[in-house]
Every structure is written in C-alpha cells, then in structure tokens.
Amino acid sequence: MYVILVANAWLLAAVFARQAPDWLSLFCPAVGSVFCAVRMRSWLRARNTDPTLDRIQATLVNTGRFSAGLIVAQGGWACALYPYGDAATRSFLFFYIATTTLAVMYCLAHMRLAAIRLAIIANVTLFILCLVDETATHLAAVVSLLVDSIGGIGVLTSTYRDFSKTVNARAEEKRRAKEQELLLRMIDNMPVAVMTVEPKSYIINYANQMSKALIRSIEHLLPIRADDLIGTSIDVFHRSPAHQRGILADPNNLPHNARIRLGNEVLDLKISAITATDGHYMAPMLTWALVTKEVEAENRIRYLAHFDALTELPNRITFRRELEERLATPGNRVGLLYVDLDGFKLVNDTRGHQIGDALLQQVAARLKMVCNGPAVTLTRLGGDEFAVLLPHNSRQQAMVLADLIVAALGAPFDLDYDRTIQIGASVGIALAPEHGEEPDILLSRADMALYAAKEAGRGTSRLFSPELEKRVQERVRLEEELRSALASRDGLFVFYQPIVDLSSGRVTSREALARWHHPQQGWISPGRFVPVAEQCGLVDRLGEFILNQACRSAAQWVDEAHVAVNVSAMQLGKGTLVDSVSAALAASGLPAERLEIEVTETALLSDEHRGIQDLLLLRDMGVRVSLDDFGTGYSSLAHLRTFAFDKIKIDGSFVRDALERPECAAVVRAIADLGKRLGVRIVAEGVETEDQLALVRAEGCREVQGYIYGRPAPSDEDAALVAELDSRR
C-alpha cells in the first residue's frame, strides 16, 4: 500500500512539475514519502515477530487511522494541484485519485472500516473537483469511481467475512492448542499415573511422569524399563492378556477396575473411556497407582477388627460371630468357658503395663497349649478376660478343660525381667442347650458361673446352675435396694466401736462402721453389702455418707475422742477424697486433728503414687492417717517407708490366733516392736477375751479395739431408732 501511494504521488508530481510550484510538486510528496517510509519500516520489522492479540489490534487501528489521514492529505494535495493543471493534467489527476483509491482499498481488504472511509474521502474529493470543473469526462470519472467503490466495498465485505472467519478459526485453534498443552502439562504433572493406549493395537502411546516414576520403582518385576514404556503393549502387565484385551475392546465394559499383583507389589488399575464431544469412543485411558502399603494397612485393619493385636487370639467380635454360628446350627451342642485372671489387675497396676502385656502374652500361650482340641476356639474378650468355645460332648469334658486352664494359669510365670509372677484364673462354665440357646443368655449364665467361682475363693471353676442365677438375681436386687437406701438415707446407720488406751483405760477414738437395716431382711452384714457397693460403683456415695455422719456425731462427743473412718481403694487416688473430707469437716465443725482416715495396704497398691498424694494433702490439713489390717498386704514395710503413718492397726486374724499359734504371736510382737522404733502407736484389732488382752498388752500394744471393750453401737441420736428396729425382730 505504501509503495502504491508513494509511486502514484511522484507520478502525479512529475505531471504537474512544470505547472505547479515546487512546494506543491516536490515538498508535499516528499513529506508523504517520508511518513510512508517510516510506516513501512515498522511494518517490515514486525513481520518476523509473533505479536500478541493486543499488539495486532493496536497495529490495525493505527494503520486505519494513518491511511485515512494520508488519503485526506493526498486529497487536499490533489485539490491544491488542480487549479494549476490543464485539461490533460486535470484528467490525469482524476485518474490518479480513482486508481489510487481502488488500489489502496484492496490493500485494506482486511480493514473494512478503513477501506470504507477511504472510498468516502476519495469520492468526496472527486465530487468537489467535479463541482469546480463540470465536464462530462470528469462527471463520468466521479460516477465510475462511485460505482467501483460500491462494488469494491461489497467485495471487500465478503473478503472481510472470510478473513474474519479465518482469523477466528486460527485464534480458536491456537486457544485449543494452548488448552491442550495446558491439559497435557497438568496430566503430565499429576500425582496420579496416567497412560493412554491405541484402541486397536493396545500399544501405550502416552505415559505421564508419575507413570514412568511408578514403573521405575517396580522395574525389577516387569520385562520393561520405564524409559521404554511408550510403544510397549499393555500385555506386559497381565498374566492373561486376552482377558484384558476383551475388556478394552468393548467400551461398554468401561469403566473397569482391577487389582494387579506383581510379586509383593499391588497395583490398582482403572480403565476409563476417552470420548469425543459427540460421545464417540476414541480410546481407553488407564489410571493406576501402587497401593501395596494401603493394601497392607487394609489387611492390618481387617486383622485387628477380628484379632487381638497383643495375643494374636481372635477378639470379641470373632467370638460373638462364632458363638452365634454354632448356636444357630440345629442340634449343635456348645460349651462356653469364661476365663478371668485372678490378681492380674494388681500386677498391671503395681508393676506397669509392660509387665502386664508380657504376662498376657504368656497367658495366651499357655491357653493355646491347653485349648488345642478339634473345633475348640480360644478368644481374648479384652483386658484379662478370655473365652473358650468347644463342642459340648459332655459336661465332664468342659469341667476337665476348665480345671486344666486353672492349673495351667496357676503355675508361676517367668518373665524376661528376672521376675516370677504368680496369678491364677477363675472359670465360669455354661452349656448349650441346657443353659440357654441364645447367645446373650448363654453369655450371661457363663458370667454368673464365673462370679460364683470368684466368690468361692478364686483359682477354681464353677458350672452354671439355677441356684447361681437365683443368687445373682438376689445380688442385683440387693444392689438396687442399696442404691435406693443411699438415695433416701433410709435404713443406713453409722455405728461406732471404741478404741481404748491400755495405760489410761480411756477411749481415745471410735471407728465408724456402716450398718444397713433392710425393711424385709433386717440387719444385713457389711460383708454382704460393702462388696456390692464396691462392685457397682456405690462405694463413693457410701463412704461419703459415713464420713459426713461420723464427723457430725464426733463433733457432739463430750469426751472429744477421735473418730476413725475407713477409706476404700476406690476412693483413694481419684482426686475427690480431700475435697470430701474438707467439706465434711466444714459442715460439722469437727477439728481436723480429731479425724482419722484408715487405709489398707491393698488400697494403696491400686495406685500408690496418687494414693500417697491424697494422704499427704490430708496430713497437711491436720487429719491423722492410720494403716489398717497391717500384715495382710503385699509390701507392708515399703508402705511404712513411703509414708509416716500416725497409727498402725494389727489385723485381728493375728490377735485371734496368737494364743494357739506362736508364729502369730511373733507377728504381733514384731509389729509392736516396729511401732516403738518408728514412734507410731500400735492398735491391736479383734481383742475379744481377757487372755488375748493380756497377750497384746505383754507384747507392747498401746491401744486395743474389740468386743472386750464394746461392740459397734449407734450414736446417741440413733440409739432409740436402732433399739426400736431391734425390738421388731
């Protein structure tokens, strides 16, 4: 376009060179040529670049504006030359404008608006010149240019549409190419292994980086290398390629999931269909992952769901399913043994969970040796509880196996810690169908039998019987009635037994003891209801009742004797005892130094550290602390070293047998001597006769408690009510 404009301008200048002044014939075309040269230079420099869309649009706009301005300038130049020409040169000027206009219009074929502006400017210029010189030739030139311009604009419009379509198509193609490149890059960098396959040859034609990395990790299991993956048939991944090809051949089979095992490795494969926009099937796409660790974790979880991790025995879930299946089999006779370890909790609490776990593993090993018969299932229910299912061929068979279990677990255990541990086991036996045909019923009755074995002294077995069920039901009723009595305080009393100083004969303190009068059964022994309270979680409420009642009563005693209150193992070390004692003292007004808290060695064994912490806090309050039933525990001397007790009470069993058994008398003497050396007061419990009193006095005991000085009796405020209750018997 610029060449045409410059060439035609200089031709016109040459025609008017002798007629027009130099500034018109030389200076004007020279200036126009310079502008065209600058534009042409910019155009030539931009040809070898890859311009952006914004740059292209800016260039087109500038070109349109420049061409319009240049045409206006040339039109003005032509109008300025026109008066200097003769008829011939003026005709050439009309010819110049017409040819230049048409030529430049076609050069601007891809810039429709610029071409239209050019045609309008050129036609207006010729029309103005025609008005100056109204010759037929000039008028014909104007009409011809107008017709040619209209036709040219029509042709240019059609060309512009085609050009726009081409440009848009190329832009869309470029956009799609970028999208495909971005998508391919995303797939290539995905953390999921992706491959595509030729649909007919089943040759791998694409594999992303994750696929190659995954193949590289298992190259030792495959006949190919990761670098050779492209171009390889997918048959290398399958033992039965024909089956896999059959799946890929039919897109209706997709998506398809498969798990492939290669040696010790596991691959998860998913085959999906790649479809065109019209839904036509193009090729299969494979996504896959190495899931060996996940499968191992799944298998481990599945194992742990049905087996105990510590002992590797079937767990409660497996036991329940096995029991239900056996009971559901018509005519099947089943024996169920409930096994509970005796003394395990004490070992676990005092020696630590590591020792406890090692002990459980040895227990499981012994049980496996004993319970090795056909169709015998041994399970760990949890904690220190085990269960055995066996074919119930005879009652004697189940009882013999139970005795073997008791004997096996009663033998000492040698652990890898240079320690020998002695525990035991109690076994409850229930048989189907005699004792029940439903799982829950049979389990309940085996549990009742186990409870009976525990009551019988542990280290034994018991077979369920209706009498056992009756006893358990009575115990349940007793628990409900005790719970009701604690809620209403109806029938519950605190009795007091005096403790006497032998040197002065004065009552120094009284021990508070719980008593329960049942509406139908009368007085119920503490030996019956206290264990029930401990087993069903009522001991805290019972202990708090005794503590509050004892503090209120002691605050009214004229002799200002101390009051001793027993604390069970379940109350000690929980973090609530100190608050309960503080509240009871505050409510009653009893001075802290008049309250004595009695704890047994067994209570300290459950959690010695926390228990001692409670005792130290009580000591800081001014409360006295006594060690009760001394001599019957597991580590008496260790407790004396850990905590400085104010008083030690010798268990009554030693006092009662001291006259007949010299070794018991020696124990009494040793404890009394120990108390003297430690500066601790010694109390002899269970003194009932004058001979026993003389013995403990001679052995050096300073205080005595027992029937010889008085049985437990109610407080003054309860004395009348207790007498009335006794008179009803």
From TrEMBL:
**NCBIfam families per the record?**
GGDEF (TIGR00254)
Residue ranges of the TM segments: 91-108, 115-132, 138-160
Kindly give the Pfam families that the UniProt entry links to this protein: EAL (PF00563), GGDEF (PF00990)
Q: Where is the EAL domain?
A: 475-726
Q: Does the keyword Transmembrane helix apply?
A: yes
Organism of origin is: Gluconacetobacter takamatsuzukensis
Q: Domain GGDEF, which positions?
A: 332-466
- Look up keyword Cell membrane and say if it applies: no
This protein's name: EAL domain-containing protein
